Amino acid sequence: MIEEIRAQDLDPAAFIEAKVAEIRATVGEGSAINALSGGVDSSVVTMLGHRALGARLRTVFIDNGLMREGEPQRVVGIFRDLGVPVEIVDARREFFAALKEITDPEGKREAITQTFYRDVFGRIVRESGARYLLQGTILTDVDETVAGIKRQHNVFAQLGIDPQQAFGYQIIEPLLQLRKDGVRMVGKALGLPDEIAERIPFPGPALAARVIGEATPERIETVRRATAVVERMLAGTDAFQYLAILHQDRVTGMRDGRRDFGQQIEVRSWDSLDARTATPTRLSFDLLEALARTIIAEVPGVVSVTYNIAPKPPSTIEAV
Amino acid sequence: MIEEIRAQDLDPAAFIEAKVAEIRATVGEGSAINALSGGVDSSVVTMLGHRALGARLRTVFIDNGLMREGEPQRVVGIFRDLGVPVEIVDARREFFAALKEITDPEGKREAITQTFYRDVFGRIVRESGARYLLQGTILTDVDETVAGIKRQHNVFAQLGIDPQQAFGYQIIEPLLQLRKDGVRMVGKALGLPDEIAERIPFPGPALAARVIGEATPERIETVRRATAVVERMLAGTDAFQYLAILHQDRVTGMRDGRRDFGQQIEVRSWDSLDARTATPTRLSFDLLEALARTIIAEVPGVVSVTYNIAPKPPSTIEAV
């Protein structure tokens, strides 16, 4: 049973001091490794690990080709400014090869997870010689899976490390007692900029979750550009989360003065407290039309843009 | 060269008198036939033909299974109230058989046209013994096709009547000099209710043009129900045209408390003067959300509703 530290009871400075000491004591003279995604959880773990271990922590950022525009460079740049070296691993080809011809959402999720753990990060861990693996698991993640030993067991299996032979490997999860709000407090206390500490949620399968149908490099590029427009133009709103979805259905449009089939982007912007229920943000039509015109102008092949007007439930935040 | 009668120069009463006399003179003691769709053009032709020929005009309403909720009965009822008998021909099976497994929009249009002219209406014309065919062609239709003889030639070919043997058949097109606004004026002068005279445009392929992908009876029923909600809830707006589109893409939703894939309806409502350019109607979010909730509640299988926010061009009024 993990003892929760609630946000109102959290002393970030004391928490950081305790966790840094724990990591240092556990790793001793060994070395550790972790994967940074740019999300607040893995970012906080990277900072804690760096404070505890310095150069004995190796942090990798795996570019799966499914990130938002400029995201790998931006995240690595933020950590560089904080004095934390992060290594970018270009694994785009491996991810797109795994995603080829998969149209089913569960299949895409599975292909990404498998490629991440077993093929890419698993290989890096196995070849690194590091025996300590830092992970940004939070209490909410534990709630959603089986708890304790079984879960850690699964991590080894996912990494391609035979649990029978995993003797010597150890997983360190400094954020296990926190929920997202607590993690954000610790992140700020660690000096992470709001861009990271207050980052809006982003799905695990990244932009692959934002295309209906196959996640080809071309289709990911299309939704990446639309996402950039949506995030830029809705940054000033109070929305809880906003996103662009590339549909597979083709709709009629005019291209170069001729009738032609083009692609459709669906924009969703949610008002919500906790993502459990949500309603569409009541954006002005000036903004909605500007959004549509900008997406059509900046994203090749798109002739139609819609805005979600259904609440969650029965809708969900993401489309796939 | 057809001489246009512009709306501002049109005297509806004189026009009606002249056309009734023309039809009577042309048909003589023969009999005529026409197909009523419920659109303003074919409705006006039905009224003119009835005034000219009485019982010697046979008017058929072909139910292709692609009409809006209750439409065949409503149209026939309106004409019954006007004293004009209209015969409903149930051709739903023939149309759905022709549409089976066709997903391409052009293919669907072609299947519907072929089934209408060659299989259903062609057979009725050939079996009727009537040699005079009344058609609601207007000047805009002529602009959009090849003019004159060639066009009439094509009508015979479409009907399965060998143009070489078409001697004796004659097509009568009383509205050839008018455009839509003129036809509406004549319709009102003929006593047609606004529901017909001011009917919002509806695509030729009917609801088959409102589903992306295959037009099965089930999918047509889904978009029919969504269309009924949209037409009912947006009737009070000043919009030029409004419609519901059933997408083929499936999106995640919650059904009976579980994650499941459901269908998406796209609503379009257009502000426009002439359909050449158009912008989305700036509906209130109260109305948009009510629309989404009602569609989800009343249309089985739908978990998501979007609203079009792109202008025409590059979008088009209809989606396929």
Note down, in words, how this protein is organized:
The structure is a homodimer of 320-residue chains. The first copy, chain A, has 320 residues and is α/β, with parallel strands linked by helices. In chain A, 42% of the residues lie in helices and 18% in strands. Chain A has eleven helices and nine strands. Chain A has helices at 12-27, 40-53, 71-81, 92-99, 105-128, 139-144, 149-158, 180-189, 194-197, 217-234, 285-298; strands at residues 32-35, 57-63, 87-90, 132-134, 170-172, 241-255, 258-271, 279-280, 302-308. A five-stranded parallel beta sheet of chain A has the order 3-2-1-4-5, with helices on both faces. In chain A, strand 1 (32-35), helix 2 (40-53) and strand 2 form a beta-alpha-beta unit. In chain A, helix 1 crosses helix 8 (180-189). The radius of gyration of chain A is 21 Å and the shape is globular. Chain A starts with 11 loop residues before the first helix and ends in a 12-residue tail after the last strand. Strand 9 (302-308) of chain A pairs antiparallel with strand 9 of chain B, so a sheet runs across the interface.
